[in-house]
C-alpha cells in the first residue's frame, strides 16, 4: 500500500507542476529533444522497422509533430549506418535558414559539399521534406537508417534508428507454394503420417540468395538458403486429422538468431517480415495414395522388390527385409540430402549424375543353375539426357567390369531412350522413341541369362551378347554419371515415381510393354 500511495503523490505533484508552469518552464522540465519523432516514407509506403529498400525507392522523412516554433533545431541529418556503427555512404542534411556557410539553393535542388554529403536548405521543417535515394555506392545488406536532429552547435538533440535492408538492384518474389503427394490421392486428401513435398516458386533479380523459412502454424519446420534447395521441403503429416496451415516466408537474409549474426542488425523483440504465401492442407483418414505398378495383391506376389519413393528409399513391399536404396557413395550417406522433385502433379526421387542410388550385392537375391531371368519396371518423368538405370551381372561379387561380367544401361539420349548391353569390348543397343518430357512414362526391361548368352528386351526389340559363363544379377542402381567429365552441377536426368524388380531361376521370362501414363 505504501508504494501505491507514493506513486500517486508523485503523479499528483507532477500534474500540479505542469498546470502552473508556462511553456518555457515546461521545456526546462522536459527537454524538447524528447519530443522529436521522425517518420518516413519509402516509395509510397510508411518506412517501418525492417523495411526493404530498393535502389529506386525515394525516402522522404518528416517530423511527426510541428517544430516550427522550436528554435533549437538547426538541421536533420539522415544516413545509413553499418552493423559495425560506421556511416555508409554520404548523408543527407536538411538545414534551416542561417546555419552557416551553406550555399544558397532551392528546396528541390541539393548541393554536394566536399565530404559528399547532400544538403537541402529549407525555410522550415514542418512541411514535407524533399525525398532522396540511397547512396549509389551502398552495397546490398542490412543497415540502420539514422535520423539525427542537430542544434546550431552541432549537438545531437535526438537520434532515432530504423533497421532496414537495402536491396540495391536486387529483388525477389514468392509467386506461389504448392503441395505434392507421392502419387495420386483420392479427393486430394492427405493420408495421416504420409510425406508431403512442399515447393515455393521464387523469382530473383540480381545477385541475391533469399532465405526461406517454413512454418506449420507457429512452429518452424525448416529453413535455409535458396541455393541450398530450401524452397523444397519434405514434411510428414501428423497422425491427427484436420486442416494444417503451411506457410513459406522468404527473406533477403537470415533472421535474428541465425548462426550468422554479422549478416543483420536485429534488435531484441523485432525481426524482418518477409514475403509470405500460405496454404491449408486437409489431412484425412479417407485419403490414400494410389499405387500404379502394383494394383492387386496378386501383382505384388510376383515381385522381389517394389519402391514407391513415398518420402523413403525403403522397399515398400518387403518391409521385413528392410531393403533400401543407398545414396552413392556410401561414405557420404550421412551428409547427403535426398533430392525430392515434383513430377507432373506428384513428387518422386530425382536421379542423375549427382543423385545416384544403389542396391548392394549383400541385399540381392542371386539365381543359380542354367537359367536366370528377371525384369525392371520404371515409372518416371524424363528431365534431361543421361543414365537413369544401370544393372550389373557377374559370376562373382566383383563389381569391376571384366570378361565374366556384363552391364545393362538405360539412358535418355538425343536419339531417344536407349537400352545398352555390353560385356568387355562387345556392345548392343536398342533405341526406342523418347518418352514425352514433363509426363510420367512407364517402361519394362526384361533380361535372360542362359548358359553362355545374356539377352535383354524392350517391348518387341531384343539384343543379346555371348558371355563365357552363366551370369547372375549382382546389383542395380538408379542414376549414374556418363563419365568423369559430368559437371558437379549437372541437372537431374529424371524423377522416379515407382520402381519394381523381379528375378527368378525359372525358365519363363515375362513379356514386356512400353506405355505412357
TrEMBL record:
PROSITE patterns assigned: PROKAR_LIPOPROTEIN
Source organism, top-level taxon: Bacteria
Record key words, sorted: Lipoprotein
Protein name: Putative lipoprotein
Organism whose genome encodes this protein: Leadbettera azotonutricia (strain ATCC BAA-888 / DSM 13862 / ZAS-9)
Amino acid at each position: 500500500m505504501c508504494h501505491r500511495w507514493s506513486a500517486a503523490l508523485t503523479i499528483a505533484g507532477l500534474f500540479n507542476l505542469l498546470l502552473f508552469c508556462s511553456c518555457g518552464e515546461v521545456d526546462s522540465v522536459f527537454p524538447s529533444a524528447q519530443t522529436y519523432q521522425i517518420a518516413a516514407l519509402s516509395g509510397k509506403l510508411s518506412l517501418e522497422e525492417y523495411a526493404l529498400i530498393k535502389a529506386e525507392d525515394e525516402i522522404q522523412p518528416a517530423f511527426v509533430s510541428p517544430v516550427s516554433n522550436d528554435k533549437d533545431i538547426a538541421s536533420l541529418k539522415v544516413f545509413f549506418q553499418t552493423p559495425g556503427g560506421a556511416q555508409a555512404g554520404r548523408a543527407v542534411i536538411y538545414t534551416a535558414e542561417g546555419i552557416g556557410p551553406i550555399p544558397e539553393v532551392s528546396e528541390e535542388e541539393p548541393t554536394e559539399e566536399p565530404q559528399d554529403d547532400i544538403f537541402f536548405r529549407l525555410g522550415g521543417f514542418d512541411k514535407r521534406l524533399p525525398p532522396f535515394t540511397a547512396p549509389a555506392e551502398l552495397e546490398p545488406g542490412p543497415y540502420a537508417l539514422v535520423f539525427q536532429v542537430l542544434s546550431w552547435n552541432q549537438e545531437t538533440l535526438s537520434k532515432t534508428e530504423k533497421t532496414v535492408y537495402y536491396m540495391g538492384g536486387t529483388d525477389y518474389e514468392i509467386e506461389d507454394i504448392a503441395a505434392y503427394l507421392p502419387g495420386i490421392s483420392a479427393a486430394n486428401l492427405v493420408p495421416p503420417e504420409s510425406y508431403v513435398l512442399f515447393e515455393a516458386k521464387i523469382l530473383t533479380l540480381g545477385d541475391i540468395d533469399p532465405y526461406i523459412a517454413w512454418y506449420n502454424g507457429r512452429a518452424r519446420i525448416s529453413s535455409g538458403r535458396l541455393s541450398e534447395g530450401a524452397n523444397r521441403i519434405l514434411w510428414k503429416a501428423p497422425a491427427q486429422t484436420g486442416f494444417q496451415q503451411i506457410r513459406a516466408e522468404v527473406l533477403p537474409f537470415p533472421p535474428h538468431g541465425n548462426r550468422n549474426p554479422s549478416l543483420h542488425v536485429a534488435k531484441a523483440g523485432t525481426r524482418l517480415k518477409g514475403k509470405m504465401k500460405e496454404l491449408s492442407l486437409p489431412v484425412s483418414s479417407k485419403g490414400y495414395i494410389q499405387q500404379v505398378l502394383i494394383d492387386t495383391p496378386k501383382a505384388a506376389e510376383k515381385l522381389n522388390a517394389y519402391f514407391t519413393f513415398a518420402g523413403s528409399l525403403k522397399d515398400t513391399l518387403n518391409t521385413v527385409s528392410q531393403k533400401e536404396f543407398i545414396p552413392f557413395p556410401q561414405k557420404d550417406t550421412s551428409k547427403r540430402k535426398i533430392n525430392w522433385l515434383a513430377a507432373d502433379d506428384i513428387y518422386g526421387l530425382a536421379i542423375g549424375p549427382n543423385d545416384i542410388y544403389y542396391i548392394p550385392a549383400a541385399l540381392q537375391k542371386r539365381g543359380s543353375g542354367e537359367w536366370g531371368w528377371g525384369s525392371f519396371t520404371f515409372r518416371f518423368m524424363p528431365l534431361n539426357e543421361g543414365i537413369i538405370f544401370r544393372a550389373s551381372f557377374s559370376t562373382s561379387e566383383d563389381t569391376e567390369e571384366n570378361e565374366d561380367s556384363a552391364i545393362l544401361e538405360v539412358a535418355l539420349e538425343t536419339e531417344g531412350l536407349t537400352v545398352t548391353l555390353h560385356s568387355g569390348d562387345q556392345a548392343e543397343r536398342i533405341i526406342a522413341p523418347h518418352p514425352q518430357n514433363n509426363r510420367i512414362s512407364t517402361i519394362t526391361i526384361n533380361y535372360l541369362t542362359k548358359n553362355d548368352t545374356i539377352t535383354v528386351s524392350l517391348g518387341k526389340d531384343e539384343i543379346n551378347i555371348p558371355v563365357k559363363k552363366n551370369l547372375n544379377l549382382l546389383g542395380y542402381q538408379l542414376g549414374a554419371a556418363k563419365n568423369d567429365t559430368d559437371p558437379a552441377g549437372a541437372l537431374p536426368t529424371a524423377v522416379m515415381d515407382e520402381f519394381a524388380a523381379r528375378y527368378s531361376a525359372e525358365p519363363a521370362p515375362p513379356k514386356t510393354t512400353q506405355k505412357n501414363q
